[in-house]
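Please, structure for the following, as tokens.
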Amino acid sequence: MKVFVTGAAGFLGSHLADSFISADHQVIGCDNMIGGDLQNLPEGIEFEQADCGDVAAMKKLTKDVDVVFHCAAIATEGLSVFSPALIGQHVYHNTAAVLAAAATNKVGRFVHCSSMARYGNGPVPFVEDQPLNPVDPYGIAKYASELLVRNVCDTHGIEYAIAVPHNIIGPKQKYDDPYRNVASIMINRMLQGKQPVIYGDGGQKRCFSFVQDCVSPLIKMGTLPDVAGETINIGPDEEYVSILELAQIIAELLSFDLDPIMVPDRPQEVRYATCSADKARRLLDYKTSVTLRDGLQSIIDWISAHGTKPFAYHLPIEIESPLVPETWTARLI
């Protein structure tokens, strides 16, 4: 099988590409390197540095491809409140370009990675068919992209499936990004002897998915006949913790004397976010194999082996507003 993975030098994309290559499939990958790292690329991938918004490049890369996995996105939900144009370009526009290429080349199936941001402040646990109410530009762009996937694929006769991953963690995750990946941010800081930063009271609650527990169901969404047209949550519903509890677990693993830096809430941050994995269990035989503590330990081991890094404020803040967190404007993280 010939597989195309967008965001192949990123976190999820590189793990997915690696799994397909290990199973002796041909894998083509692209990344614009805004959030990727060439060291993440698995051996054997046919890689091109290209932006997903380049329709001509996407047409070339998706030629004779059986399955597209669209993993690329600037997944900075909090930043999207202040940089909606950036998010619109790299979430919605780029999805449109990859879809245009896939439709032109009659790709067999298009697997789109959406986000739990589609649910907004809806009732938890989130289920796939509940009313959607995204509360920030990232969630809006992800949901709009889903609608586009359905429209283009139905119109042009392409099978599709929409995956909704939840807070993926693990090795290769970008840990010098101040705008996303809360667990990696905390670990990078604590390994430098710095206290973690917590927005609000730390009572926001999340579930965290270990990356390999996401890769297996994603592969099935690209290959199983019975999941065409389905939208499926990919994430655990067993370990639901607050951000403060997350910091406490990491501190315990590191034997770190925790005294977190508490700062004001971020605008439009969802308070409670966890999913039901019942549909994934039913259709994909989904199960978790890595506990939260073990997943966090794997990040600690990864960052320790590769060295801590200063945080890189690499993305623009488009809206000048007193609501922008000082942690970003003054580069306090």
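The mean pLDDT is 97. The longest strand covers residues 159-165.
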